[in-house]
């Protein structure tokens, strides 16, 4: 069964559609790439999926319900929208512990997510000394605190060096192999070609393609 369902979703800003009658579903156990140029409507779609802004028409459900109606949202969906950098003087460990406590999530998850993103060895160092890629991994660790089955990542590899890109790509593939639903946006065709199993391609808010990555790459 699809874990994410977007149906006839429309969002307008000052009368202009940022997302325009968009419909697609996302399946578990694979990485689904959400590909489109800057301004195509990817961030707006993800904000709609997370209930951060209201649609003008249509709906988006995650785990069978609109986000705002989820009983345990943090255990259902994790998201990386834009780098919310941790306070630079804080350690990764303290940042995650504070989040776990304020979200009433079990303390043991802090060590689990630090291991997941490979920051266990630097967990007690100042996060201000982290590279951009390590900062992104820390934000993904924060998104995974609730052990959600669905992960939404908005342009997670933007600006990273090749090693940082590879780290996050491998992490997304590992999470999908565990049966999670990974939905990742990017404007980089070549990056999505090697990361995603399936592609949802949009332009000007409208669906352009919804197909296995191999099929899209062969045609473009
Ligand atoms: P993408 O994530 O693909 O780059 P966005 O969803 O950020 O695309 O933007 C889609 C379109 O909607 C763009 O034209 C953008 O300028 C516009 N837009 C996005 N958010 C807002 C907003 N809060 N107010 C007005 N226009 C917006
Ligand atoms: P992205 O390409 O990842 O969407 P943007 O810089 O386009 O990054 O958007 C970052 C934030 O600014 C988003 O929350 C988006 O909704 C908002 N935004 C984008 N375009 C506009 C706009 N024209 N007016 C107001 N807010 C906007």
TrEMBL record:
Keywords: ATP-binding, Nucleotide-binding, Transport. This is ABC transporter ATP-binding protein. Residues 4-220 form the ABC transporter domain. It comes from the Bacteria. The chain holds residues 5 to 224 of 312 of the full protein. Transmembrane segments: none annotated. Signal peptide: none annotated. Belongs to the ABC transporter superfamily. GO terms for molecular function: ATP binding.
